[in-house]
Design a protein that fits this description.
The structure holds 2 protein chains of 2 kinds. By secondary structure, chain A is α/β, with parallel strands linked by helices. Chain A contains 12 helices and 12 strands. Chain A folds into 3 domains: 60 residues, no CATH class; 178 residues, Rossmann fold (3-Layer(aba) Sandwich), CATH 3.40.50; 53 residues, Winged helix-like DNA-binding domain superfamily/Winged helix DNA-binding domain (Arc Repressor Mutant, subunit A), CATH 1.10.10.10. In chain A, the strands form 2 sheets. Chain A has a 10-stranded mixed β-sheet with strand order 1-2-3-7-6-5-4-8-9-10, sandwiched between helices. Chain A has a two-stranded antiparallel ribbon with strand order 11-12. In chain A, strand 1, helix 1 and strand 2 form a beta-alpha-beta unit. Chain A is elongated and about 70 Å long. By secondary structure, chain B is an alpha/beta fold. A 7-stranded mixed β-sheet of chain B has the order 3-4-2-1-5-8-9. A 5-stranded parallel β-sheet of chain B has the order 11-14-17-10-18. In chain B, strands 6-7 form a two-stranded antiparallel ribbon. In chain B, a hairpin with a 2-residue loop joins strand 15 and strand 16. The longest helix of chain B is centred in the last third of the chain and has 19 residues. Chain B is elongated and about 85 Å long. Classes of the chains: A alpha/beta, B alpha/beta. The interface between A and B is large, with 39 and 41 residues.
Chain lengths: 313, 500
Amino acid sequence: MIDACDGCLRRSYEFAPDAVESRPARLDVDAVCLHSDSYPAPLRELTQPPPVLYATRIDLVARLDEPVAVVIGSRRPSEYGRTLAYRIARGLGAAGVPVVSGLALGIDAIAHRGCVDAGGRTIAVLACGVDVPYPRTNRRLYERIREHGSVVSEMPPGSRPYRWLFPARNRIMAALGKVTVVVEAAQRSGTLITADFAAELGRDVAAVPGQVTTEAAAGTNGLLRSGAALVTGPQDVLDLLYGVGMREVPGASRPVLDSHAERTLNLVGQGLGLDELGRELGISAAVLRATLARLELQGLLRRAPSGAYVLTA
Amino acid sequence: MLAKVRTFALEGVDGVPVTVEVDVRRGLPAFSVVGLPDRAVRESRERVRAALANSGVNFPQQRVTVNLAPASLRKSGPSFDLAIAVAVVAADGGLPEADFPDAVCGELSLSGEIRPIRGALAMALAARRSGVGRMLVPIANSAEAALADGLEVIGVPSLAELLELLRGDLTVEPAVPALAVDIPDHDGPDLADVRGQADARRALEIAAAGGHNLLMVGPPGAGKTMLARRLPGILPPPTMAEAIEITKVQGVAGLARGGLVTSRPFRAPHHTISASGLVGGGVPPKPGEVTLAHQGVLFLDELPEFARAALEALRQPLEDGSVMVVRGQRAVEYPARAMLVAACNGCPCARPAGECTCNDVDRIRYARRLSGPLLDRIDLVCELRQPPPPVSASQAEPGESSARVRQRVLAARERQTERLRDDGVSCNAAMDARLTRRTVLLRDAARARPALERLSGRGQDRVLRLARTIADLAESADVLGEHFDEAVGYRLGDSHRAAA
């Protein structure tokens, strides 16, 4: 759907030297301008709203009947950050809350993935054109988001990402969300720019506390000190969005496990290595492998990049 | 007068018969060697001249022409010295016969002493094949060469003694083959030294039982090298035929220490090795590390640091068990049936899971350096963690010994041999896709289906082969659900799969 006036389109193309030739309609990309009814209302609150918003599916962004959560964070997260980001996004997705993020490496990608895995809708806000999957590493995720959610940008299709576009993109993310959740950010992180925008717009800012000794958590701990809401899981975010006790994360429809498997899961959650697991459970390496593989197939465990088993949610 | 002496050249790891013909006739004194000799062979003129003089034989002051037949084969190395010297003496009338049935191999020193050569066993085996009854070799090589059953091998210390022997002035007892009556139990490092690491020990045992290639992932110091070094000790001891093959290959490479090599080789080349260093090459062609590891273990530590070209070159030998090296106009085939054990860190920063700060791009770039097709040849992946220091006496107890693990491995191999006898395949890892589907029967196929559906075709075969080996270790005729589940647990982690 193209619902944009010439004036707005002209303004939109002013800073997009790469995009001269591309036409949204041909690329199956929606475009709405400030004067359209389909223009997402929260963006109008920005001091400089994008004249035109491009989206792969504007209908998902235009009428957001649910409040939206922004989940963002470090590009080099720790294993702890990964787990929390996934857990929060998955919980929100399951509760029907759309998750907005920036498709960056690390936390952003995990947040999108968590939401899609739970069958939720997710919105990726890009600094480049919506037809440009950037970063390339997340190409497969980009395709999944196009399928199950929407990719939006204020830059016309074909635009390449430039450095100065990223803070500008951050303001759109901040405006779309009712709450911005930061999972791990270092002291001087770009993520904090989004948090600043959100605070200026009067949106809620929340952060996941991290270890004080980890550099990757200095930014989030700083946010908490200056008054951000503390988030330990998806339920905390739902409480922020709807008020305490109004909504609950749907109970994970988990298969019934025997006590042995429960205990294994519990111990994996404590971060035990394979050898320690075997010793604690009193089983041989062979039986342990088989047990873990079964739990992985049931979707209760996953492999960390190091090869170690961790809980999925 | 013309004289002929039989000797052998090395082509790959095999001996090829060569006849040294010497013609001595009147003319301007000269000494020339023809028949595609390389530098070392041409230099043998000087050694032969000096060695003869120092052994009390006058070098003929005539025109001496040496031909190494067949003239189309390139000859290299100094092992023709002795045959040339004997042929010169014979052609000059210094020996009772000018054409005799013995084969002669050896390098000469200027003093007339006979120095050891490379590939003595390969030459002796070739001699037996071509019907030679007696072979004269350097005394240092006599034990090795005597392993060729049915060939009379005599070790000689010097040219003077050799000439006496040929004139019949001296009799020497043939060398006794240095056959160990019984191949001893492995005397290398023992698995009992490895404390804890139950999971990795299990992976090593499965790898040994089915001949599966193994990848170990873990931080430095977790014990990857230590475990890999203990793999030859739990593999079945080489059979006599295998031991002779190992000895032959090691002999060609100049690594033999005389006598039968009774333990499987373990080769751990550094990651800066070139493709030709790994699979063989050079002019003249030399065997690579994968050939030196023939019938044993090739260990590649820091796998992603190896040159991509080197790893790619390794694929074909791992598949075929042999490698063809083509250099210039020569093509040489080397055996290369080795088990691959590779090791790498989980991510470029190599820190334990909790402290890792690598981002996804770093990780993927690191994983991508492992060549995908090479990973296809690896059935088994295990992760290692830094073992905690032992806190109680029970944890400090030595682990199970290699000898006991080897017994289980042997039993599992026996089951495989019996099952695969008619298919010309030696172990589970060597089964191709068709054979895998035919022989690996899942008792509980319905339960396994969801797991299999998540894997690629190759991935399915890998898991099935592995499950078969696990069932063999458990002495089970069918592959049960638990065997299958365990096999699934040893496949590649997600980050590596993303790149593969």
